[in-house]
Structure formats: C-alpha cells, structure tokens
Amino acid sequence: MENKFRFSDDNKRYHTWNYHLRHKFGGKVSKIALNGGFTCPNIDGSKGTGGCIYCSGGSGDFAGNKENTVTEQFDEIRERMHKKWHEAKYIPYFQANTNTYAPVSVLRERFEAALSHENVVGLSIATRADCLEEDVLEYLSELNKRTYLIVELGLQTIFDETGERINRCHTYADFLEGYKKLTDHGINVCVHLINGLPGETTEMMIESAKAVAKLKPHCVKLHLLHVLKNTRLADMYAKGEFELMTLEDYVETIVNQLEVFPEETVIQRLTGDGGRDSLIGPLWSLKKFVVLNEIDKLMVKRDTYQGVKKDG
C-alpha cells in the first residue's frame, strides 16, 4: 500500500524525529543525554518531595554521570556514538531533572560548555512549565537566536486529578502559562505525554493528545508508563491499585493519538526506555522495535496517517 504521508521517505506514516533532523541538517544527528546536576522543585521540597510517583530519583536514567563535568560526559558519550556514526552531528540534551531550575549563571555555564563542542548543531533542555523565570526566558531567547533550541516540557496529562495522583505538583493551567511564555519568545517546544497513568482511561489519553495537538507544538514525545523498582508507583502496582497497558491497547492508543496531531508536529518518541534491571513492567516494552513495528502495521491496516483527524 502506497505511503502518501508527505513528511516521510520510508514506510513511516508519521513525522519522525530522524526524518526531521536529516532534512534540517542534511545527515545523521544524535542526541547526547547529559546530567547537569540540577534538582527539581518536586524533589527539593519547594513544591513537593520524592518527585513524581514513577520517578526513580530524577528523570534521565540514561543521561551522563553527574559526577563528571558536562564536557567529560559529552566526550564519553560522543566517543561511543562515533564508532557507529563517524560523521554525525550532535544535539546535547540536558535530560536529568529540571534543567532551568537554577540561577542563570549556572545555566549559562552548563549550556555553553555543551554548545562549545565541534559538530554541535542544537540544544535540547528538559524542564517543567513552572520553572521559567523571566531572566531564564531571556537567556533561552538568546540561545534560540544562536542555535536550534528545543525546550521539552513534561505535561504527562491535561487532567489535574491525575496530576495530583502522580504528585506532579503543577496544574494544566501552569503548563499552558509556561508553554505560552516559550512560544511568545519564538522558542520551539516539545511536549511530553505519558499513556497508562493510574486512573486514566483510553478516552482521557486521547483527550490529552487532542488538547496538546491544538497547541501545534514543534515536537511531542508519547511515553509509556514504566513501573520501576524502588518507586511509589511500584508500591501501588504491588497493591493492585492499577493495571498496566497491554501492547495491543498501547499500540491502538498511540495510533489514535497520532491521527489528531498536525502532520507538521515532529514525533520524537512513541514509546519509552526502561532499564532492564530496574523495570517491573510492562516487560513487553523492552522490545522497542516490536512496539514500533506494531504501530506501523496498525497504521497500514487502517490506512491511516498522522493528522487525518487533527481537527476532529
């Protein structure tokens, strides 16, 4: 069956991150996940403690070692990647915890160190919508004029009752305010959503996707909820307080969500990575390529594409 999706040059019927980067920069671009040594207002007590219930001590389990400098982390990870992609360009990705939750002088030190490396073509910064002070926005706006900048905002869900259940410690209204601050400065935003959160129905997951789609973000990441060892979520799961999504339910939900996003929105992620040693479930998520292949197969079976229901 012919693939008529205009932002694809392979079998994908959605706007992949790889497609976007190849067409923007003319070749392979790799993200290098870094740990800037930041904390989070949901960890240090200013908003909450313990982080979100699924948090294993700070997001960014696959980021660099915070005991090393940004330059040391970058060099170590780039060396591994260089063995596979000899001519790649790089986007440093400050992934762990909340990466605008510090004085601008500290942010400038960390971010400029990452940008100083050869073949760096952009910068990605993960943060919360309630951690965007005016001086931080001014610095981000400055960066945006110098490089390809993406600020990643963890929303997870538009439903505040779920936000309270997962100890998110900010509201959907807070997210919308932060999102507007960034877009008013012309900054690209990547929005994160998590499917399978405790208490959420499939219909709620679709509603979250529809609400985000109407914002027309530059990118989105659609994650699967992982239950990791030594988290409050693991305790809830052990008590039978919620069920994990099956592969079939997850794939169908993702395809339904893709249909509502504008075709211009870049899909950075359609599943998630859980460490093999720390993951309690869903164990099927360890086979990432199987998940992605099942999504492709269902889209072909339906003969559907990203954006076909964007106004629905």
Describe this structure in words.
α7 runs parallel beside α9 and α9 crosses α10 (288-302). With 312 residues, the protein is an alpha/beta fold. The two termini are 25 Å apart. The strands form 2 sheets. Strands 1-2-3-4-5-6-8 form a 7-stranded parallel β-sheet, sandwiched between helices. The chain has a two-stranded antiparallel ribbon with strand order 7-9. The chain has 10 helices and 9 strands. It is globular, with a radius of gyration of 19 Å.
Give me the secondary-structure topology:
Blueprint: H1 17-25, E1 29-34, H2 70-82, E2 89-94, H3 104-115, E3 122-127, H4 134-146, E4 148-156, H5 160-165, H6 172-184, E5 188-195, H7 202-215, E6 219-224, E7 227-228, H8 232-238, H9 247-260, E8 266-269, E9 279-281, H10 288-302
Helix pairs in contact: 7-9, 9-10
